[in-house]
Specification:
It contains six helices and ten strands. By secondary structure, it is of the alpha+beta class. A three-stranded antiparallel β-sheet has the order 5-7-6. A three-stranded antiparallel β-sheet has the order 8-9-10, with no helix packed on it. A two-stranded antiparallel sheet has the order 1-2. The chain is flat, with a radius of gyration of 46 Å.
Amino acid sequence: MAESSTSGTSELTLEQADRITRNREKAIALKKRKVSKRAFIQKNAMREKALADQQKAELFDTEAGFILESSTADKTPNGKRAKVIIPTGPVMREEALICEECGKQFDDSFLYKHFGLAVCNGCKDDDKHALITKTEAKKEFILQDSHLDSKEPVLGFVLRRNPHNSRWGDMKLYLRLQVEARAMEVWKSKEKIEEEKELREENRQVLKQKKFHKKIKELRMHVRSSLYKKDTGLHQHEYGTESYSEATDEYSKTCKSCEYTLTYEKM
């Protein structure tokens, strides 16, 4: 009877252990399904949000009372949407413009539209009405950015793509006549401009000469340091002739290279 009771208790313990194992596996599987379902729901929500943002980005306000759809053709190479530029038509004036060159009337022209110069397109001359870049204007007429873009009246300009590299940004082109007139306002005369150019060139040459001498000095120091070899070995004394002092009854001898004196007595 005792053996059967012990055997029943042992079988019941094994069944309980087996049941616990199965319940644990079911719980783990259920948890995995819940986590997978939650991740699936989050992924779908993110996909729907991205799609909605994309659809919203494809519609933009022109700020002119219209909502337009953008396309890949409306975007710049860096992925940004290009600015929508709507050219304006000729401005209706009560009085027609009079060309400063030929004296004829005209409604609008390139020079008047961008630079406010009353010259018709027929009288536009490539030499007289030449354009100049901002860099060239600053260098040739000794001007600063504020003289061109801030000083009243602000000079007109047109934007053109950089012919050397389109990724460098657009160039500002000014009317050379107006830049020269602005230089006269700043420097008062062409002689002052030439004097300032000469002064800046002299300073530039002085700085250039200083840099040259500095490089020469550094090169000489480098050559000297490369030729000099420091003796890191142990010094071996090379003594000269032995001498005797009757006053101290001592002998001494001196090293020929470091002048170290060794003093000693003889027994």
